[in-house]
Write a structure and sequence with these properties.
Layout: E1 5-13, H1 18-37, E2 41-46, E3 55-59, H2 62-71, H3 73-76, E4 80-89
Antiparallel strand pairs: 1-3, 1-4, 2-3
């Protein structure tokens, strides 16, 4: 059984962003909470290994993933050095 297509956003923190992540986190959290509340964001979180600020998020639509990236306070304040949106098909569906 094949699952639905999802859209995975990955972030790579910009050089020197670590000190500013905490400052902008409340606005970032409010931004992603809005997507979750609308049912567009399924999961989000940072990677636990270095570097700090690298993260992954899974969205239900490409449009939501693009809206998120372009409006995210982390992005707007230059804290993200690299990012991607990739289409992903969920294989293990419960």
């Amino acid at each position: 059984m094949s699952g639905a297509v999802k859209y995975v956003v990955t972030y790579g923190a910009a050089d020197g962003a670590g000190d500013q992540l905490g400052e902008h986190f409340p606005a970032h959290q409010a931004w992603f909470t809005g997507f979750a509340d609308r049912g567009l964001l399924l999961m989000i979180g940072p990677f636990t290994d270095e570097p700090a600020g690298d993260a992954l998020a899974v969205f239900t639509t490409r449009a939501a993933a693009e809206e998120f990236v372009h409006g995210d306070p982390f992005m707007r304040h230059g804290l993200i050095g690299s990012w991607s949106i990739r289409e992903w098909r969920e294989a293990l569906v419960s």
